[in-house]
Specification:
The chain has helices at about 50-70, 85, 90-100, 110-120, 165-170, 180-190, 195-200, 215-225, 240-250, 255-260, 270-285, 295-305, and strands spanning about 1-10, 10-20, 30-35, 75-80, 105-110, 135-140, 145-150, 155-160, 205-210, 235-240, 290-295. With about 300 residues, the protein is an alpha/beta fold. The chain starts with a strand and ends with a helix.
Length: about 300
Amino acid sequence: MRTAVIDLGTNTFKLLVAERPAGTSSGMHVLHAEEVGVFLGRGGVEKGMLTEEAMARGMATLRKLMAKARELGALRVGAFGTSAMRNAHNAIAFTERARNELGLAIEIIPGVEEAGMVLDGVRQAVPFGNKPKLVMDIGGGSTEFILATDKALMWKHSFELGTTRLVERFPATDPMDMGTQLRMAGHIDAQLEMLWPVMERHWPSSLVGSAGSFDTMASMIAMERGAPLGPEDVTMVFNTVEFDSLKDKLLPMTKAQRELIPGLPGHRTDTIIPALMLVERVLLHGIERLEWSKYSLKEGAAARLLA
């Protein structure tokens, strides 16, 4: 059966259309994937609400994504709302509009469920071994961390700490001044206080970044290497030297300068800075190897639906 998944994130909506390969009982063949900048949480994520403008953008995008899913023959569409929706007091108004106008039932999932779906997706792209890896999925409203080996899920947590929240909490000069960077770093460290003893106890062998901001980081690092990512690439290994070089290049830039960088999508020119800050704070706790996973929540959700 051909299935579609729509991931309603705080910044972007993502569509995946997939099917089970013929004659198999497992696996997933991706037919179509796309990402649209919607900014559902803009102007309201820190206030616990969805603005009327954001809901209008969301409905317009859902209408297009639903049409694409039906065009590709999807018989089932699963839609999952994450941080912006689970924290908005008026999210029910948006889900009712989607149900009434599009026949789409949106499931607003808890953070721990989101983390579980992320791991299900990442496992399809990145090999795990007997040494634990720390998976990190940066969203606009929340960031999920999962510690896992090839055989076990050891720990998972969803922190209500995302790039849109950071942008709205720390309105920056352009480019971001050092004072704002230091305040943001201190806030991130305090919010992730629960993560640090987990890392110190288990010493993860690598940081696995899934989708979203990590797609952008991997794309730009691959271009710096002179070997751009292809459509079939689902993972890539890089190190802290390459990450630091990218961070040191982007942080001093103005938004206008970032908009000219190949591999950096227009809808991420603002959020890439707090994303880099988030990753930097984690790497300071002793990780030197990074892995990118193209697959994340939507692939994990699709695998569950196909099963």
